[in-house]
Amino acid sequence: MSARKLAKTAHRALLIAFFALVTAHVALDLGHPVWWDFLPLLLAYAVLVVANRWGGAPDSPRAARPSVEVEPPVAGRWIALNSPADHTPSHHTHAYGQTFAIDVVAEPEPGSRPPFRALWPVARRNADFPAHGAPLHAVADATVVRATDTARDHLSRGSLPALAYLMLLEANVRDLLGAGRILGNHVVLDLGGGAYALYAHLRRDSLTVREGDRVHAGQVLAQVGNSGNSTEPHLHFQLMDGPDPDTARGIPFIWRGIGVPRNNEVFEVPSRPVGARA
Q1: How many CB atoms lie within 10 A of CB 164?
Q2: How far apart are CA 182 and CA 96, in angstroms?
Q3: Which residues cross the membrane (predicted)?
Q4: What distance in Å separates the CA atoms of residue 229 and residue 243, rounded to the nearest whole number?
Q5: Quick one: which of 12, 104, 136, 247 could link to 4 by a disulfide (CB 3.0–4.6 Å)?
Q6: Handedness of CA 100, 103, 107, 108 (dihedral sign)
Q7: Is the pLDDT assigned to residue 10 strictly greater than 90?
Q8: Residue 85 burial by CB count (10 A; 0-12/13-18/19+): exposed, middle or buried?
Q9: pLDDT value at position 172?
Q10: Which residues contact 247 (CB under 8 A, 6 or more apart)?
Q11: Which has the higher per-residue pLDDT, 173 or 114?
Q12: Which residues does 173 contact at the CB level (< 8 Å), separation at least 6?
């Protein structure tokens, strides 16, 4: 196990221990001093401090490297959100290799995507969103190194109450349980040259490939879903320098013919015949 993986695992385990001790202290009225419960929390952050000092921290950015040009992973009319073209880290964290990540949502026609609401409806069905079920394409000739699609697709978080639940409770629990719970169903491609492409929040049971498969650019890999730490059906895409999101660091990308769309920028990618090579 690498130093970065060990640091991340130890940090997560110590946080879980902290919450378990606090819960047990309240529920069982344990006799030890309250400050004992906070020892795992202090150790958790000590692990990150030490890891940062010695270069093993999984959440620290690496030195800038040239952007890698790849094909777009979608086809049709889409809107970019949380784009690295506007700021990095694009998702406000370097964790899970997200420094240069981007989210994209489908909107085949203006207004065809349900708007965010203050109170009602609290949540929507995934079928209400045009992105749900959209095909996702390999961005280059590559080898599949990770592939999982067993997590359920949950309802959208398209209102203030649902978003508060996600940000304050669900996201934190998912983070404690590991990268897989954050990403939901996902696939990782080894593009060669130390670059890996991650597609996250895929639809359950939609993968058309498995680990070890060799794929070509443009090949359909899976469908857009709403699994993991996701507010609505969308694709979370990123390049990173390793296959494990827990230890990888982000790499900047450029989509051939598109560039890097900015936040709320509409972009269109021509559809390609099934099985066509880039």
Answers
A1: 11
A2: 9
A3: none
A4: 19
A5: 247
A6: positive
A7: no
A8: middle
A9: 75
A10: 2, 4, 5, 8, 58
A11: 114
A12: 181
Tokens of 164: 């508060």
3-class secondary structure, 192: strand
pLDDT tens per residue, range 223-267: 999 999 898 999 999 999 999 998 899 999 999 999 999 999 999
> pLDDT tens-digit profile of 257-271?
999 999 999 999 998
Sign of CA dihedral 259, 86, 231, 41: positive
Joined together, the tokens standing for residue 8 give 């991340």
Of 103, 109, 64, the closest CA to residue 86 belongs to: 103
The residues, ordered by sequence, that sit 6+ positions from 251 with a Cβ below 8 Å of its Cβ are 65, 67, 68, 100, 195, 239, 240, 241
Closest C-alpha among 256, 235, 248 to residue 196:
248
Task: Retrieve residue 53's tokens.
Answer: 């000092």
CATH 2.70.70.10 corresponds to the domain 68-269: yes
Residues 29-69 have pLDDT tens digits of 666 666 566 676 576 657 656 665 555 444 455 556 889 99
d(CA 79, CA 263): 8
Beta bridge partners of 250: 240
Length of the chain counted residue by residue: 278
